[in-house]
Specification:
The protein has a domain at 2-79. The chain is built from 11 helices and 17 strands. The protein has helices at residues 2-7, 16-23, 75-78, 163-175, 189-202, 211-221, 233-237, 248-251, 262-269, 274-280, 421-428, and strands at residues 30-33, 49-53, 59-63, 68-74, 226-230, 292-296, 306-312, 317-322, 327-332, 334-335, 345-354, 358-360, 375-377, 388-392, 398-400, 417-418, 436-440. A hairpin with a 4-residue loop joins β8 and β9 (327-332). α4 (163-175) crosses α6 (211-221). 43% of the residues are buried.
């Protein structure tokens, strides 16, 4: 077995020719598969990787930064019988960052911790931008730029739609770039706010009780809300971790803040509440490649050039506007709290980091448990700031993702703007450093 060779103490290197001959043999018992679902065309040298195991007991290779290099899987799961003589491999794990970075992005920040500054640097700790806020004077009061129509929990938009019809409504709004948050087949304030934002963007009226109209709009926007999807070997390979501990010291010991299961990964990929994904697929084992499941079809990311962002604290919603002043997208958000309020006034986006790590500093951050030391928490979708960090010009503040998408718009944050990972990713692809962010009440 390949990893038995890797683990041998006497191993110093494996030739490329030898590696190629191993991987080209379809009759090999085990294969090393990359996170993208491709067979590795080399064997990493000893010292370059650590050998570990995931939640399912499979052997995995982790590099020094905590990134998954490969997962060892049985050859028959990569080359199922129906594939013999046909397509060489199966598509791998969906990567929302696989597209080339837009011009002006700094590739050096794509795996940077938050902040970029190493705690061993000579700068004082007080100068290190962290995720959470510390004291400082507020910026000037903002102008009144709130949307004309306000939806609050006291003024809900009623709907007589069925669960699947509400799913269709959520999917339609998501495809339009007006996010309803997690898609769960339930009406709520995130859906209500999205309806109002869509009307603001289009100038049209959307009746949440008119199922026929919603289904027709859905058809024109890309087809049915629910589709079939076959779980691939790459999906089942992960990377996964057994669980995400609450204690930050324990988080810092993980190789990566990865998903904990295929179901969690797929739910995020398709913008779904994990519980709803399981409801649509009762009794399904999501870890088995070749399994066909039902998922929603949210459609591609919204595209545009965002030049101005408004974070409405009262609505718990973020609005993204284009050069012509028109609304491009809107997202439910968790924005600040009474103890750690968000800024006021106008700031700018300073940098964009994808898949960032997180630096916990109790001298600047909130106190977490009994942790009194600086901790470096590795990147991953279950990290404290999710998969995206948009650093703001006010130190310690940013727009970022979250490990708990179902709580967005329903809870408060530690002063920053928290979006679902997919919404934060969509927004990150439409902005550049220098874009203004206005906080309004």
């Amino acid at each position: 077995m390949i990893l038995a060779v890797l683990a041998a103490a006497s191993l110093t290197s494996v030739s490329t020719a030898s590696a190629q001959s191993v991987y080209d043999d379809r009759h090999s018992q085990m294969l090393l598969v990359s996170p993208e679902g491709d067979i590795l065309d080399y064997v990493p040298e000893v010292g370059e990787v650590m050998i570990s195991r995931d939640r399912m007991g499979r052997t995995v290779l982790i590099d020094r930064r905590g990134n998954l290099v490969a997962t060892e899987i049985p050859a028959e799961s990569y080359y199922p019988p129906r594939q013999r003589g046909g397509n060489r491999g199966l598509p791998g794990v969906y990567d929302p960052y696989a597209e080339p970075a837009p011009r002006g992005w700094d590739d050096d920040v794509t795996t940077a911790s938050i902040p970029d500054i190493d705690p061993r640097d000579s700068l004082p700790l007080e100068g290190m931008p962290q995720d959470m806020p510390y004291g400082g004077p507020d910026l000037p009061a903002p102008a009144d730029t709130a949307p004309a129509r306000t939806v609050t929990p006291e003024i809900p938009v009623k709907s007589n739609l069925s669960r699947l019809e509400i799913t269709a409504l959520q999917v339609f709004l998501d495809r339009e770039g007006i996010s309803p948050g997690v898609i769960d087949g339930k009406m709520g304030q995130n859906v209500n706010k999205a309806i109002v934002a869509w009307e603001q963007m289009t100038g049209e009226t959307l009746d949440p009780n008119n199922a026929d109209d919603i289904l027709e709009r859905l058809r024109l926007s890309g087809g049915l809300a629910i589709k079939s999807y076959t779980i691939t070997a790459g999906d089942a390979a992960g990377p996964f971790v057994a669980s995400i501990p609450d204690d930050y010291a324990h988080k810092a010991q993980l190789p990566a803040m990865s998903y904990t299961s295929t179901a969690e990964m797929l739910a995020e990929r398709f913008h779904m509440d994990e519980g709803y994904l399981r409801e649509l697929n009762p009794g399904v084992d999501f870890s088995i490649p070749g399994t066909t499941i039902k998922v929603v079809e949210p459609g591609p990311y919204k595209k545009g050039n965002v030049t101005r962002i408004v974070a409405n604290k009262g609505l718990k919603q973020v609005f993204a506007y284009g050069e012509d002043g028109g609304l491009i997208a809107a997202y439910p958000a968790s924005i600040g709290s009474a103890d750690t309020p968000s800024p006021s006034g106008t700031v700018t986006i300073e940098r964009i980091a994808l898949n960032p790590g997180y630096t916990y500093n109790p001298k600047i951050n909130f106190q977490q448990g009994n942790n009194t030391q600086i901790l470096q928490i590795p990147p991953g979708p279950n990290g404290p700031v999710g998969t995206v960090w948009l650093a703001l010009s006010k130190p310690t503040y940013g727009i970022h993702g979250t490990p708990e998408p179902s709580k967005i718009g329903r809870t408060q944050s530690h002063g920053c703007i928290r979006l679902t990972n997919w919404d934060a990713t969509e927004l990150a692809k439409m902005v550049k450093p220098g874009v203004t962010v206005e906080f309004v009440e």
